[in-house]
From TrEMBL:
GO terms for cellular component: cytoplasm. This is GTP cyclohydrolase 1 type 2 homolog. It comes from Gemella haemolysans. Belongs to the GTP cyclohydrolase I type 2/NIF3 family. The keyword Cytoplasm does not apply. It comes from the Bacteria. Pfam families: DUF34_NIF3. GO terms for molecular function: metal ion binding. Gene3D superfamilies: NIF3 (NGG1p interacting factor 3)-like (3.40.1390.30). The keyword Metal-binding applies. Keywords: Metal-binding. A divalent metal cation binds at residues 65-66, 105, 224, 227.
Amino acid sequence: MITVKDVYNQLNELADVKLAEKWDNVGLMLGDNKSNVSKVLVCLDVTTKVVKEAIDNNVDLIVSHHPLIFKPLKSLDFTDDFKSNIIRDLIINDISVISFHTNLDSAKLGLNDHLAKLLDLNNISVLFEHNLDKEAGLGRIGQLSSPLSINEFVDYIKERFLLDNVSAVIGNEKDISSVALLGGSGADFLYSLPDVDIYLTGDVGYHAALDAMEMKKNIIDIGHFTEHLVKDLLVDYLTKLGVDVIKSSVEKSPFKIL
């Protein structure tokens, strides 16, 4: 039988926990390493809906990208605290949780590499090298096979990343050839970018957008939820263990365009 520890070890070969940022919380969030695993659910976030989905599908283990437990828990209040109730339901139903976050972002064949390959970028390299591994690090940079106008490029990434809409900061009108990307919240890296035609990331705030305009840089906010695309990578990787792996189908971006 496959155990929780076996799944953890398999994931650690893909994305060593040593690659995680110091502020992050990764690894086994909840459960017993010796528990048997027949079915795994992969998701972006461990939400109430995702836990119900796991229970309904008789899942033994949830593998999430974002940590189930990030901020320290001071208490477990089952009256009206959603996080406490998520943890309670996981324990009652004997569902373990493993979360691989910034280590999966940085890994050589991790999330950012996956996103770059979805765009069919050429000459892919690490945007910000990790001090433990030059082949790993946050973000990726690469080249399009042929230049695209801004409008053409927006249509292209919407198709490749399955996006209905994006927000863009157009600092210049040059055609796009070189692309930098960093899944999740990467606006703070704007100021240390190499010379590229466009930068793709999420959670771009007003001040970063204003600064980008001043610096004549192009940014497209692809949203934090774009990281859900990592589920395909996790399914492919974990299926090699011989367990049943399913993708969460209940996750949606919390934002609506009204």
